């Protein structure tokens, strides 16, 4: 059976980490190696993590250089054949996400598996704000600004060994640059699961300040130029606006799947 490592990065995440941990523990496919890479939390994060964790829990708490550095540390420590991420303010949309992912990796030729996610209200995670429907990865979709939802992306360890991890020169868009880098040439065999895999709370590093949003967009445009996936700045923002509008419209009709731990 294919083995899986999940990585969660935390820093003072006590307000939301219990949902993350419980959704991992409720997955039908166990055991899961769950690495929690903590940046030295000063609140109750680590107590909650240890209380809610499964037998496969590994906790590392030490200073880091931020979110993407913690992700790279987790990748370096992960022992599974397949590696995925579940963020400390996100949780799985249903109890069989990992089972479905590993079913797709039963084909030894599969390099990457990904799906859909919903943005939910920070205070009321049962209220859907947006639906990110990933769809198929094609050269045309990449040119148009498409990228799969990173919290739903699972990769074989061999992909990281060939392509490297997150580039820390990108402070807010290293996940975008990484996904563009690995999917750009179409060499990976990918499987798209057309299902909602993750509930992502609104907010985060780019959710509040205009300066951070502007910097993230500048980093995305720089990554696109670096990898030869260019378009006009105006065209990029128009397509992004259209995509966000469509996600909000689609989100209104979403009916979230049931989970055992939130019943």
What fraction strand?
15-25%
Query: What class do helices, strands and sheet pairing give?
Result: alpha/beta
What spatial form do the alpha-carbon principal axes imply?
globular
Give me the number of helical elements. 9
Tell me which oligomeric state these chains represent. Answer: single chain
Provide the succession of SSEs: EHEHEHEEHEEHEHHEHH
> Mind describing the biggest β-sheet?
9 strands, mixed
Describe the structure.
- Strands 1, 2, 3, 4, 5, 6, 7, 8 and 9 form a nine-stranded mixed β-sheet that branches.
- 36% of the residues lie in helices and 21% in strands.
- The protein starts with a strand and ends in a 12-residue tail after the last helix.
- The chain has 263 residues and is α/β, with parallel strands linked by helices.
- It is globular, with a radius of gyration of 17 Å.
- The mean pLDDT is 92.
Could you give the topology of this structure?
Layout: E1 4-10, H1 17-25, E2 33-38, H2 45-52, E3 57-61, H3 67-77, E4 82-85, E5 90-92, H4 97-104, E6 112-120, E7 128-132, H5 139-143, E8 154-156, H6 157-163, H7 174-183, E9 190-201, H8 210-226, H9 233-251
Parallel strand pairs: 1-2, 1-4, 2-3, 6-9
Antiparallel strand pairs: 4-8, 5-9, 6-7, 6-8
Helix pairs in contact: 1-2, 7-8
